Amino acid sequence: MNRHLNQRLGFSLLTLTAVFTVVPILGVIVYILVQGSPAISWEFLTAVPRSGMREGGILPAIIGTFYLTLGTAVFSVPLGIAAAIYLSEYAADNRWTRLIRLAIINLAGIPSVVYGLFGLGLFVLFLNFGTSILAASLTLSIMTLPVIISTAEEALRAVPQAFRTVSVSLGATRWQTIRRIVVPQALPGILTGVILGLERAAGETAPILFTGAAFFLPRLPGSVFDATMALPYHLFVISTQVPEMPVKIQYGTALVLLVFVLGMNLVATVIRSRARARRQW
Amino acid sequence: MEKDLNWREFVITRAIKASGYSAIVFVLLIFFFLLREGLPTLGEVSLSNLFSTRWYPIEDYFGILPLITGSLIVTVGAALVAIPFGIGTAVYIAEIAPRWMREILKPLVELLGGLPSVVLGFLGILVLSPWIRVVLDLPTGLTAFTGSLLLGGIAVPTVVSVAEDALDTVPRAYREGAWALGATKWQTIWRVTLPAARSGVLTGVMLGIGRAIGETMTVMMVTGNAPVMALTPGSLFSPVRTMTATIAAEMGEVASGSVHYHTLFFIGMVLFLISLAVNIAASTVVFRSKKRAERILS
């Protein structure tokens, strides 16, 4: 029958689009893995760049990205979780709450380079932090906030209402209930959101371009007021700004960045699926 | 003891409430600083200069039209890639794929969303653009088209995840009703499931396009960075320069407080307003459809 033929054709077409979406993703990862792994050596991971970044290692960039991710976590995790607790446990469904939600959606949609401009205007110049780890981390934190808030809120809301009712009926205050019952139950979900948010921060280049990234700095940053090299910015620099850059080092840097970011993604996925399997409600 | 507990509870509750409102504060702060640094442009650069077709800041030509058309053409190209592939993949995952396949595909698409844009730009320079140059026989592979392909890929995960959620929330009874009337699965998808999930799918597409307009590193690396007017479809195959790329490429080299500096902030302000419009539009689509669904159900 004609319509069954139609269905078969249609399904094949959809399968094909899915294949065309997924295969390039795997292709990118495998390709960088294959091209980049010859560059990986002890020296590459633990030495500073030499000869105009064409030799040596990328340690300052690795450490820099680590510091920036850590700095982002320091600001965005407490604020993001607190905001999620407010939305899930305290906020009434009124105009102000809708405005907060709209603000979160908009924060999530603001282009990353605009965050860079904002960070330059507020943290670097107005507050006079200079081009520094502090300014870059603060900029990245605000960019990460919407991811953390929305995933943490979802995790908090998934905790059954009965848990709260029982806790309060036993004489606990609202905050005690949140701290001892709701948050621990939602923790795996919150953690997943936090890691996914930080993963995005670790891979971003545009927000740190004018707030904290250094083109070339062959030493480790000494304080939060120092600028720093960072993996994504370093990859940008060596693939566009440095002539006669050995391809091997470029692929090696891309691989390290990919491992850093995808490693976080993997941890988040594992936490989520484990929590799902163990959950009793 | 009792009093101490009350006091602590009071302080913590206040702190949590303040954090809740922080998102609004940050949006306002961002807007304020963009205005503060961007608006002076209007006093320093004449409107006819600002809205001219020549961007050449060294000689005080600050025409932002080429940058706007550059962003536009790359985004339209990206949408042409992201819409069919995004919706197709979402329908495949939600309606056709067996359960085990879904468990593999969803995290994979999320993974694409997590790939740093600078990595895609890097591969765009080294792999995609030489290939495009040879296959399409162009003078350079760094074109709007190259940017569109990669940006489409960046927008796909957003489209897929929002659209797939929307398809997932269509009640099973809708599908069962269609099957009971003798429709094939294929007819059910087109005539029942997709129309029922329309607003969610539309939201996904809008958010995906929003993501594409704002993307910076990939476009800066692969579109060739030539600030020329892109008005014909043929411009798709020549170098262009987007608003985001201009800010990223030039902000590092300008003196703060100069006319050029203010103009770059002005472009940032335009980008901010575009993303605000896209996101508010996308969320009102959801609110409105929710209200309609509530009306039907009540």
Report on this model:
The complex is a heterodimer of chains A (281) and B (298). Chain A is mostly helical and 281 residues long. Chain A has helices at residues 2-36, 42-46, 59-90, 95-109, 112-126, 133-157, 161-169, 174-203, 206-209, 231-240, 247-278, and strands at residues 49-50, 55-56. Chain A has a single domain, classed as MetI-like fold, CATH 1.10.3720.10. Helices cover 75% and strands 1% of the residues of chain A. With 298 residues, chain B is mostly helical. Chain B folds into 2 domains: 2-38; 41-297, MetI-like fold, CATH 1.10.3720. The N and C termini of chain B lie far apart (49 Å). Chains A and B meet through helix 1, helix 3, helix 4, helix 5 and helix 6 of A and helix 1, helix 4, helix 5, helix 6 and helix 7 of B.
Overall shape of chain A: it is globular
H/E element sequence of chain B = HHHEEHHHHHHHHHH
Per CATH, what is the topology of chain A? MetI-like fold
* Average pLDDT of chain A: 89
Arrangement of strands in the largest sheet of chain A: 1-2
Largest interface, with counts of residues having CB < 8 Å to the other chain, equals:
A-B, 87 and 87 residues
CATH class of chain A: Mainly Alpha
- Given as residue ranges, the uncertain stretches of chain A (5+ residues, pLDDT < 50) are none
* Beta-strand residue fraction of chain A: under 5%
Share of residues in helices of chain B: over 70%
Q: Averaging pLDDT over every residue of chain B, what do you get?
A: 87
User: By CATH's scheme, which homologous superfamily of chain A applies?
Assistant: MetI-like
Order of helices and strands of chain A: HHEEHHHHHHHHH
Question: Which structural class should the secondary elements of chain B be placed in?
Answer: mainly alpha
Q: Assign the CATH architecture of chain A.
A: Orthogonal Bundle
Main β-sheet of chain A, in a few words?
A: 2 strands, antiparallel
